[in-house]
Write a structure and sequence with these properties.
- The protein has helices at residues 7-41, 46-73.
- The protein is mostly helical.
- Helix content is 61%, strand content 0%.
- The longest helix has 35 residues, at 7-41.
- It has a domain at 8-73.
- Helix 1 runs antiparallel to helix 2.
């Protein structure tokens, strides 16, 4: 059983969830809108309009889901707990006498 979260931790999680939803909606609407705008301004045949709008709506929904999942996956289990064991931390070894780290 996990310990109870503090009000500050609950607020941080709530803000992160809202950020994920708002930024996901923006990305989804932007992506679907860009693809769907071809119906309005392009010389598209009438038989293509329905499928084109369907594909743009599916793309917008997929972009929304991907954005929400990416934002929420970076949310740590306990704020301030540091990196988890699954995080990869790259450490540049010291290279005395070299001016370029890639040399």
């Amino acid at each position: 059983m996990s310990p109870t979260r503090t009000p500050a931790e609950r607020d941080a999680v709530t803000i992160e969830i809202m950020f994920a939803l708002v930024s996901g909606a923006f990305v989804g609407l932007s992506g679907g809108g860009v693809l769907g705008s071809a119906v309005l301004w392009g010389g598209m045949p009438g038989s293509w309009r329905g499928p084109w709008l369907t594909v743009s709506a599916v793309l917008g929904g997929a972009l929304f889901c991907v954005r929400v999942v990416r934002v929420l996956r970076r949310l740590p289990a306990r704020p301030g707990a540091g990196p988890s064991t699954e995080d990869v931390i790259w450490i540049q070894p010291s290279q005395p006498g070299r001016t370029n780290p890639d040399s």
